[in-house]
Design goal:
The longest helix is centred in the C-terminal third of the chain and has 30 residues. By secondary structure, this protein is an all-alpha fold. Helix 1 packs across helix 2 and helix 2 packs across helix 4. 1% of the residues are buried. The chain has six helices and no strands. The chain folds into two domains: 78 residues, no CATH class; 35 residues.
């Protein structure tokens, strides 16, 4: 099963669930055709819900399904608290803006070379004049 079909089944699970149910019904019909009654065929096959869940888990990317469900839950919760959303957005904007400003300052002051012809030839000169006395 390809990645795209798994993603499609994650976002549109309706047809996949119908296919699983149809397959289970087929197996029940096969057991009943072999001479078993409906109850005995269901007992022999096992719990239909458990089989459906296991088959669904094998057929889709579980973590992606979990992420989609968690994101939907998070958005529902955020809709209930618009003041919290505003505070979160403002704090993120301030944090990103402050980090950008500090990085630009460090970039200009420390990381970029000096705007002179040969910055390696610059020297620091430390000297004293005879008229300057340390107090």
């Amino acid at each position: 099963m390809g990645l795209w079909s798994r993603l499609r089944r994650t976002f549109r699970p309706g047809s996949h669930n119908a296919e699983i149910r149809e397959e289970l019904e087929f197996h029940l019909q096969m057991d009943m055709a072999a001479g078993r009654d409906a109850r005995e065929a269901r007992i022999r096959l096992g719990g239909l819900t458990r089989i459906e869940e296991e088959t669904r888990a094998m057929g889709i990317v579980e973590w992606l399904d979990s992420v989609v469900r968690d994101a939907a839950y998070g958005f529902r919760q955020l809709r209930k608290a618009p003041a919290l959303v505003l505070a979160v957005v403002l704090s993120l904007a301030l944090g990103v803006g402050a980090n950008t400003a500090i990085f630009n300052l460090v970039d200009v002051a420390i990381l970029r070379p000096l705007p002179v012809k040969d910055p390696d030839s610059l020297r620091i000169v430390n000297g004293q004049t005879p008229s300057f006395r340390k107090g």
